[in-house]
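User: Can you recover a sequence for this backbone? Please restate the input before giving your answer.

Assistant: Of course. Working from this structure:
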């Protein structure tokens, strides 16, 4: 009688934990590598915006009237929107402001708002979800109803209203708070469900019997168990935050000139799309690539770190 030997499994280093295995799986995916390169590129561009604009020789608010033709309605002089050795990505029509300087500073503003709002959402949502799932009872009821109330609000209309009536305030700070205010219930629901499944595990019961208090159990036992889905969900939140900031700026209620942002630049470029398409293509391309890279990265992290939510 012969027995069939199963094919050998992929070599796995001895003692590899789940995080190391997840990292190895992510390294195998080409989409993850490309997405990481794109995300890193734009993050470095945003972080080094002042240095990059100084290397280019122009600030984002500096006008260069010699780069536009006043007899053609301020159309940039030269091909592809005025791209030249002086202006690496061309210039804005009419004003002559350097497009490269405005794009890199716009990346700084857009990504700062998106990443800070995401941090607010993740911290608030994780704290609310863990509290609701672990303590249950009245705490769960109150937090769950608050989640339902926040999610039932017409968030975009409320954002537009708040941004419209606020005048003499820091627009970047206000946008960050307003965008983050409506995003936390989604991640709170995910964390609550994970916490409900974890709080009755043997190691949590053992910690409770051993005299550990709620704070120690939440931070030492529950939080590491929900970390995977939270990380995956975070990378999926970021592109939505970037798009929301761009939409508000596009509608004219976000960051105000002369502070640049990608949404604001796209809105201003609509009037010149037929005479200077590069003015529209460049900020739109940056926004598209950033959102796409974060989305692909988030999908991969979700599939690896939270396999139960993976699409079949």
């Amino acid at each position: 009688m012969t027995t069939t030997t199963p094919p050998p499994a992929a070599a796995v280093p001895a003692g590899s934990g789940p995080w190391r295995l997840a990292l190895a799986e992510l390294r195998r995916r080409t989409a993850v590598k490309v997405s990481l390169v794109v995300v890193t590129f734009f993050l470095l561009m945003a972080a080094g915006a002042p240095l990059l604009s100084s290397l280019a020789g122009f600030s984002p608010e500096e006008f260069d009237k010699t780069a536009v033709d006043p007899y053609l309605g301020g159309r940039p002089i030269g091909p592809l929107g005025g791209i030249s050795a002086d202006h690496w990505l061309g210039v804005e029509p009419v004003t002559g402001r350097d497009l490269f300087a405005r794009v890199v500073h716009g990346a700084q503003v857009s990504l700062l708002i998106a990443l800070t709002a995401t941090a607010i959402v993740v911290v608030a949502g994780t704290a609310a979800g863990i509290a609701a799932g672990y303590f249950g009872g009245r705490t769960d009821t109150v937090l769950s109803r608050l989640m339902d109330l926040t999610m039932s609000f017409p968030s975009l209309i409320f954002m537009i209203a708040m941004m419209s009536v606020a005048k003499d305030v820091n627009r970047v700070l206000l946008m960050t708070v307003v965008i983050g205010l409506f995003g936390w219930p989604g991640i709170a629901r995910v964390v609550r469900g994970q916490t409900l499944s974890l709080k009755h595990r043997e190691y949590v019961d053992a910690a409770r019997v051993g005299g550990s208090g709620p704070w120690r159990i939440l931070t030492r036992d529950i939080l590491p168990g929900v970390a995977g889905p939270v990380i995956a969900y975070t990378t999926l939140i970021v592109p939505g935050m970037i798009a929301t900031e761009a939409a508000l700026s596009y509608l004219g209620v976000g960051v105000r000139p002369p502070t640049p942002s990608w949404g604001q630049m796209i809105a201003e470029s609509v009037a010149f799309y037929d005479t200077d398409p590069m003015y529209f293509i460049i900020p739109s391309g940056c926004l598209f690539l950033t959102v796409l890279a974060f989305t692909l990265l988030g999908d991969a992290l979700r599939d690896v770190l939270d396999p139960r939510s993976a699409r079949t």
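That completes the design. Confidence is low (pLDDT under 50) at residues 1-12.
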